[in-house]
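dumping these here so i dont lose them again. two proteins, back to back, each one seq then structure tokens. dont judge the mess
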Amino acid sequence: MATQSTGGTVMSAPMTSLSAAQPTKTGAAPLHISNAAVEPLSEQVLRVEELTVSFDGFKAVDALSLSVERNELRVIIGPNGAGKTTLLDMICGKTKPTTGRVLFNGLDLTRMSEHQIVRAGVGRKFQTPSVYEDLTVFENFEISLPKMHGLFQSLTFRRTPEVRERIDTMAGEVYLRDQLGRRAGQLSHGQKQWLEIGMLLMQEPELLLLDEPVAGMSPREREQTGDLLSRIAQGKSVVVIEHDMDFVKRIAHKVTVLHQGKLLSEGSATEVQSDRRVIDVYLGH
């Protein structure tokens, strides 16, 4: 069985319930981070400080600062080209900033590799679902387990009753319990989105970065996804990029509005919707 990970998986401790308190991570290999400064933990799980990245002289993100609290569901909105996806790219290490810092639980992510960031507990889901379409839903969940990463781990892996129970529980959480025997390629677009979110959660990240998770979903699927994200945020921090303001109003604890790579406005969904600057550059179009 293949052991490569998808773009939306992270390596950390097993998960028993989405609404449970964050467990202590055990059994993971030591995380070696060279020259990565560690600051004391606070209620801010993520802190972005004066972050800037330039591409051929164009500042996609310009001196951006923001913070995300523990167990917060933050939604980031803004017009196309505002720097939303680029911000997530810098948090997960895909893009290195020109200047500034990204602190996650006191770790400076800008000084870490993508692999180290993943192992530290940051999970990223991209806009397009990334699942193993030739495998069943069950096998997709199974291959996401931390014990399936690496040649030795995969060779010694056993499908125990505990593994089956954990996969069944996760499938129920993401509305796929009755789809476990189907090939992932046969799922609807919305179901593939749920599968990838479940695969991500199997790895027990502390911070989830989700890029337009309800794009292409039916109204009912959007409603179910909103419920799912709200449950996840009871024990994790979640950052979502989204354009659907009705969905944003339903799920967001706080909304951050970006424009031309800078912070334009921040507050509740009601507050940012009434901000004249936001109306002029985004909501009014």
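---- next one ----
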Amino acid sequence: MAGNIHISVRDVIKVYESKGEKVTALKGVSMNVYKGEVVAVMGPSGSGKTTLLNLIAGVDKPTAGKIIVAGDDITRFNENQLRLYRLEKIGYVFQQFNLVPTLTALENVLLPMSLRGKRNVARARKLLESVGLGGKENRFPEELSGGEQQRLAIAIALANDPEIIIADEPTGELDISTGEKVVQLLLRESKEHGKTILMTTHDPRVARMANRVILLEDGIIKGEYEPTKISYRVEEGALGEIHAERIIADYLKDRLSGLQRELEILVERFKSGEVSIEELADRYYEIRHLMNALRSELAKLGAGVEAH
């Protein structure tokens, strides 16, 4: 995609150390994201996706390498500079929504504005209206559905009108239909306001909405693809191509396996009295609905799975 480079990650390494053991989460990652571009990062659990987002968002610092955002090397920022960077330049949409349960929807949106010293009630109300939460300003997070909570999280991320929106699995806790609506809100910010969007996802439907998809595996960028194929360098150094459908099918099968296990745990918790029959029914049918949608997508790809 032609245009100005907005984010440049250069030879970034991130090493975590715990109890004397070192784990290298990112192994020399280099990538560019262009201004106004929508980029999806895919990869299995533990591949380093969230670590990469956190580094770009200024939540964490790399062990080595540089991250240049709008011409500034944020790896050289001190803590105060990073705080201002996060407040002014970055809007972060967390997978678990990261809402303050004791604040109303309106107060949640006003919070980052207040931290920046620019509280604007009119803008907060307008943002809630723009994400379909008009009239629900005084509701607490627990009074909102999962889709509404995620839309509230997007409004919060947009509170200070950031240049960059970072979304970590923004649809991970939502059904397919609600998830697509949430992503459409993010895409609108790119199209209408020129914001740069960087998100992680396991959902191929979400990935297909992006301008570009980067495949991250074991802390290394394996390649990137546009709607129908992924390009990567094979060991001999030649440029090869494999169809994205094969990659997508693997992700879908992994997701199905995880959901099946979640169902089994849910039933076990019901049997032990940890969840009520109402909670069991609600979550059970939600999971089954998502599994059916994933199986339908696999069928379109011609990749069958065993029925459960």
